[in-house]
Amino acid sequence: MENQQVIAAGIGMGESARWHGGRFWFADWNARLIHAIDPDGTEHQSFAVPSFPITFDWLPDGELLVVSGAAGELLTLTPAGTFARRATLSELSETPWNEIATRGEQAYVNCIGYAYPGPAQVSGLIALVKADGGATVVAEHLAFPNGMVVTDDGGTLVVAESNAGCLTAFDILADGSLANRHAWAAVPGSAPDGICLGDGGIWYADVPRKCCVLVARGGEVLHTIELEQGCFSCAVGGEDANTLLVLVADWPGALQTGAVTGRAVAVRLDRAPQ
């Protein structure tokens, strides 16, 4: 069994796990906070975000972009520590905005396209936000788009469709638009949430199955890590990229009751996949 260590507790609902600048970052949706912690769990900094869902990513120069989901805004953290509006997303959809992934000076932000937890619809979309703040829809008809990553070569965007049990890929064209939609990996029976690049594939967090899975292009399962609670998001980081940070919480209590059951669990990845 993998070496698992709880490095942070008292989290309402942790999402948007990231590794940046030698630290793990995550958002607590219930508390409306973004935290940065050292690999041993030592708190480095935290700051408040106006509304949730909260997701974030960085531009190449280190500028932090934050999705204020319910407000339908993409914000930037200024040097003064305040937020300024980078783009208005509510003009494209009034339903809450969700995940973000940056590529160069541009950002992709997705939206589930319906009022959760109402009846599920295949109405999710992805918007491209350019450096000047202009936003356009570049993909539609997604089944609850969740985590997103851009591959290391910058040529492919992969999005987890939670209600379709699939990691779906798009080719990224020169102007940032998306084309050639196809299945990167079908994961039937799963509900992939947050995702990150891993050794030989993509890790996805699965809330109902309480696990994180490393899957190769085409669907081969390379590694499965079982945890005690629902898994919402994950990020590879640490020295030599030897740690998977997983954000876990009881479900559905984390969102419906506001129960503070969330934890950040560090899982060592030293051993070869079984």
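Above is the first protein from milestone M3; the second protein from the same milestone is given next.
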Amino acid sequence: MTENGQVAPWDDIYRGVAEGFSGPVPWNIGEPQPEIARLIAEDRFRSDVLDAGCGHAETSLHLAAQGYTVVGLDLSPTAIAAARAAATERRLTTASFEVADICSFTGFDGRFATIVDSTLFHSLPVDGRGNYLSSVARAAAPGASYFVLAFAKGAFPEGQGPNPVTDDELREAVAEYWTVDDLRPAFVHALLGERDAAMWQRDEKGRSMLPAWLLSAHRG
């Protein structure tokens, strides 16, 4: 989905017209990723929350339903339109969404007590990670929490898929801007076709479970 220095055509992907994407995106499972939902249930989130690369924004919508104030940012106008429509339909007034480049957005300096990256990090060009981390760190309030769920190296055959990471790669990149508290193996749950799904174990809802890392950090 991305080359080292090239941004994927995200709006085409969300519209279902990009090569290899003829229907709904597989990471939109209709609810937050279970790893992220578990953190929310453990009261690890505080308002205001930035949902970085929010996509259809199920994480934002879930948080807003619990009373959190959330801002979702995404490069895709199609994804943001879907998120806004869902928030209106569910009467969630504490969630707002904007089209923005997560690697260079401005206007939120020092605002967010929690920043969540649910399957964004591995979607960035490798040489764009520093700009992204700098941007979200600038938007963080003192003491803010930062959570990242990203595909692990080996989740896809070499040369296919996005830019997955080793645990050391993820830790070293984030540690330049944040204090890393925890990094552990995790899963990204996805709705894959039968052929692709056969490669992975499945959860109780039949969704494929792809290897990932879950990182927790804080801003000093």
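Note on the second protein: The chain has one domain: 10-218.
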